[in-house]
Amino acid sequence: MNLSKSYEFFKPEMCESRIHIIGCGSVGSTVAELLARFGLTNIALYDFDTVEDKNLANQMFWTDDINVAKTVAVKNNLCRINPDCRDTVKLMPGWTGQKLSGYVFLCADSVEVWKKIVDQNMYNPNIKAMFNFRTELTGAQHYAADWEDERAKKSFRASMDFTSEEAREQTPVSACGVTLSVAPTIRMICTAGVTNFINFVKGGELKKQIICDAFNFVLEAM
């Protein structure tokens, strides 16, 4: 992959650890695409689902991905960006307790899965940082924690003190009961999260929380 446009800014060899993307829907597929364009290929993809036609509106898929496993479809798309991904991107049929290391992106749409992963790995010395995303219709939030920072880890976990049912109550749905979600919101928060990750790999300090409202042009980091 020709990285001449970005290599002086970020060298992919700076990130030697594996990147785990747990959930390959709207957030996970977008995060994976952004990482691949930085030349990062040491990625593990986790998801149980297949691509549906409704996913094309807000996820990084195309019509020929319909009925394909999301992990397979994401990997195929990453290989279109960087053929080196074919030998390095690993596919996992969802997270079922596998050991994690390096960088973990919690992109599944289940709060319970996030909690289980964080609780199981709270004292895992092989993890460098975790990243999480929550999306609504126009607004979204991103959370991150340096896994060597005890206070940051506890704050990261505390941010998940709600249930999937409570989250669904706050999520707008169509008259037919379909969850509403649009690509600009997804891409805005994923871009913020990947930027946070890149800055951290380069030696910067993680932003613990980033909030955005894509249609009111709001982006705040803290």
Please characterize this protein's 3D structure.
By secondary structure, the protein is an alpha/beta fold. The chain has a single domain, classed as Rossmann fold, CATH 3.40.50.720. It is 32% helix and 19% strand. It contains 7 helices and 8 strands, in the order βαβααββαββαααββ. It has helices spanning 26-36, 70-81, 85-88, 111-120, 150-158, 164-169, 183-201; strands spanning 19-22, 43-46, 90-92, 102-106, 127-135, 139-146, 209-213, 218-221. It has an 8-stranded mixed beta sheet, with helices on both faces. Helix 1 (26-36) links the parallel strand 1 and strand 2 (43-46). Helix 1 runs parallel beside helix 2 (70-81) and helix 1 packs across helix 7. The relative contact order is 0.15.
Beta-strand percentage range: 15-25%
Structural class: alpha/beta
Radius of gyration: 17 Å
The strand order across the widest sheet is 3-2-1-4-5-6-7-8
Helix content: 25-40%
